[in-house]
Amino acid sequence: MTARPRRVVSRVLLNAAAVVVIVASLFPVYWMVNTSLLPASAVRSTTPHWWPDQFTLSNYQEALTDDSLLNALFNSVAVTGITLVVALGFAFLGAIAVSRYRFRTRTSFIIAILVIQMIPAEAMIVSVFRVLDGWYLLNTIIGLSFVYIAFVLPFTIWTLRGFVNGVPADLEEAAMIDGCSRSGAFWRITFPLLAPGLIATGVFAFIQAWNEFVFALVIMTRPESLTLPIWLRAFVQATKATDWAVVMAASTIMAIPVIVFFLIVQHRMTSGLVAGAVKG
Amino acid sequence: MTTVPAEAAAPPAPPSASRPDPEPPRKRRFPWAPLALLTPALIMLVVFIGWPLVQLVVMSFQKFGRAQIFGAPPEFIGIDNYAAVLTDPEFWAVLGRSVALCVVSVVATMLLGVAIAVMMTKLGAVMRTAVSVSLLLAWAMPALTATIVWGWIFDTQYGLVNWVLTQVTGQNWIGHSWLIDPTSFYAVAAIIITWGAIPFVAFSTYAALSQVPDEVLEAASLDGAGGFARFRLIVFPYLRSILLVLLVLQVIWDLRVFAQIYALQSIGGVRAETNTIGVYIYSVSMASGDLGAGGAISVILVVILLAISGYWIRTMLKEES
């Protein structure tokens, strides 16, 4: 075989492999949305409907008029909102401290936040449950938010620290020479340059709190205090194999905010976790 | 300095040498300013992670069952909880299943992720963008919703997999349950976990591959190195440390997998036969109410995971200095 046809064959194989990857990645997402737009009768037919040929929004209507889902949606929005705002604020202050000051316990603090990131939530459910129980914080939005804030702080501090490091302190000093006060230099020069970092970190906190499963399962046990993931799991179990169309509508409602926010900051998601390694 | 390839370098990166300490160490003053800035975060970490962690260790040495939840004083029983857990065959069965699931998922994730990354470097611009966008969507999918969707695809009555198998093999697969048998339950779980984990591995590896300088590859090729030799001798050394970090992170994430297993069990698995370590902790401590034993298993899990993550922590510290 000469070089040319062989190259054509490998090109074709390569693109075929790419198509396989595309289909395998997209199909479950597509299938969720597709099923959610079909009436229950079409979902329960012997042949699959490959696209929403009997388009309907009735599943969404059914899901969004269910009081328990609306309640769970409210709880999730509240917990996520509190976590996002507080974690971002605290992480911002912490990142400034770690990045702009040299103090003796700095390295210990950095090691501590790296170690904490590796402590599995699954192993903490027992004692977090007990501690919150002792403080009457079980089944409260504020109790769950506190736990989420603590568990997203290490990563948010770590990520923001990277962004603060990226803004040269020289810029601040130049502003101070030109007559800015130290805090003025910070708010006028450094803070605006940190905006992308704050957005990326905030989205991370949002996604963590919105998707979190195991703490919510343990802490929010009353029907009125469920968050969206816990509600969804219970709903799947309750309607098992009878109402996949509505289940898919509810899943889509839960997934869409995450997908949208994720796409906004996707190019910064890998960097925090593997930054040191890529350099080699 | 952070050097994840071009895309991550959003803020201008200063040469690290030119950054003077804003607080020069000329006077040994107590560092009030940084401490004040760290205080809110420190309080949250100490109160909601540190204190429970201490409680966890204490509890693992106590008899702590339902009676204690309702107020009876817990009694110290030394290492009885650990002895009971470590001599319980179910604990070892759960641990073995978790490790097996973890190994299968991690191997599949790493092989496919790296293969996809290499493939992306060879694709044309249009195809590469299409692959990136698809991977991103899969990555963005919350683990719980992904599990539920895969549960629907593998559904007993109306699932797509059974329909396709019926069409292809000519036998009737409708009504075949994929989740009732533990082995095929774990196969489905491994597919879900791998599907969700590949994008992160693929993107990180792709980013690292784009760091390999073309000149070096060209020089090697002029010196007569073939494609495989170039990969083994030049590309791989560039990739080695990132692949190790990815491996460590994947092992940790897959070993503690919770939402996927728990949700799949709700769709139709036999809980007792399909528990992994995370779900087992939940069922021992929350469902059965034995917080002492649950605490002991938790401490064991923390120790295992911290031991594995030592490499990752060291790598991240290297970047910091």
Strand-helix topology:
The complex is a heterodimer of chains A (280) and B (321).
Chain A: H1 3-36, H2 40-43, H3 58-64, H4 67-100, H5 106-117, H6 121-134, H7 141-166, H8 169-177, H9 182-211, H10 214-219, H11 228-238, H12 244-269, H13 271-279
Helix pairs in contact in A: 1-12, 3-12, 4-7, 4-9, 4-11, 5-7, 7-9, 8-9, 9-12, 11-12
Chain B: H1 32-59, E1 62-63, H2 66-69, E2 75-76, H3 80-86, H4 89-122, H5 125-140, H6 143-153, H7 160-169, H8 182-209, H9 214-222, H10 227-255, H11 259-268, H12 271-274, H13 277-287, H14 291-320
Antiparallel strand pairs in B: 1-2
Helix pairs in contact in B: 3-14, 4-8, 4-10, 5-8, 6-8, 6-11, 8-10, 9-10, 10-14, 13-14
Architecture overview:
The complex is a heterodimer of chains A (280) and B (321). Chain A is mostly helical and 280 residues long. Chain A is built from 13 helices and no strands. In chain A, helix 3 packs across helix 12 and helix 4 runs parallel beside helix 7. Chain A is globular, with a radius of gyration of 24 Å. Chain B is an all-alpha fold. Chain B has helices spanning 32-59, 66-69, 80-86, 89-122, 125-140, 143-153, 160-169, 182-209, 214-222, 227-255, 259-268, 271-274, 277-287, 291-320; strands at 62-63, 75-76. Chain B has a two-stranded antiparallel ribbon. The model of chain B is unreliable at 1-20 (pLDDT under 50). The interface between A and B is large, with 119 and 125 residues.
Provide the residue-averaged pLDDT of chain A: 88
**What's the shape of chain B?**
globular
Sequence of strands across the biggest β-sheet of chain B: 1-2
Question: Average pLDDT of chain B, to the nearest integer?
Answer: 86
**Please, how many helices of chain A?**
13
List the keywords.
heterodimer; A: 280 residues; B: 321 residues; mainly alpha; two-stranded antiparallel sheet; 14 helices; 72% helix; disordered N terminus
